[in-house]
Amino acid sequence: MKKRCFWATESKLYQEYHDHEWGKPVYDDETLFESLFLETFQAGLSWITILNKRENFRKAFDNFDYKLIANYGEDKYLKLLQNEGIVRNRLKIRAATTNAKLFMEIQVEFGSFSKFIWDYVGGKPIINQFKSRDEVPTRTELSDRISKDLKKRGFKFVGSTIIYAFMQATGMVNDHTIDCFKYAS
Question: Cα separation of 166 and 168, whole Å?
Fold first, then answer.
């Protein structure tokens, strides 16, 4: 049996996410947007809630196409509020549109969102060497800085804890504990 990080033992869905996505460096803008989108909806909820609704989000939000999401109007907003398959938080749904627009502004300014976000870590993952769950932070000075920058640009639901989770998910930081089979991969 594979030894996984402490949080990836609850369900098969968690294990699949852990084994194939979490901590794997992501450099393409489409996947980065999806991850940021899902993390913002996770604010105040458990990650398993979001994973369980991920495919519903994918269908409801046009396969996480930020170009389409940026142009959602009131009709689409009202339709999303009725969708029982997603998190129907009014502010988060509005934030999805706002964040998609701002995501594209960053693309124009920096050439890609990937370049913008990965420049914070010099283009390569920070490899941590945590032994236990108690050592893994929920935020860092770096996530504070990124969060502050995104908020200054107008992004919503991008507090430091959400940004650190985004950094973990997209491999900007490798927080697999040293006893996890994914640590060295």
Answer: 5
Helices marked H in 8-84:
12-20, 29-42, 47-60, 66-69, 74-81
CA distance 139 to 176: 15
Question: pTM of this prediction?
Answer: 0.96
17 in catalytic set:
yes
Question: What CATH number is given to the structural domain containing 68?
Answer: 1.10.340.30
CA distance 124 to 135: 22
Residues 133-173 have pLDDT tens digits of: 999 999 999 999 999 999 999 999 999 999 999 999 999 99
Joined tokens for residue 50 = 């979001």
Does the active-site annotation cover 47?
yes
Q: Among residues 14, 22, 34, 39, which one is catalytic?
A: 39
Instruction: State the total domains in the chain.
Output: 1
Task: Summarize the confidence of residues 11-33 as an average pLDDT.
Answer: 96
Active site includes 118? Answer: no
In angstroms, the CA 83 to CA 21 distance is 27
Q: Give the structural domain span for 156.
A: 12-174
> Tokens for 76?
């689409």
d(CA 185, CA 173): 13
pLDDT tens digit sequence for 162-182 = 999 999 999 999 999 999 999
How far from the centroid of its chain's Cα atoms is residue 130's Cα?
21
Tokens linked to 99: 């964040």
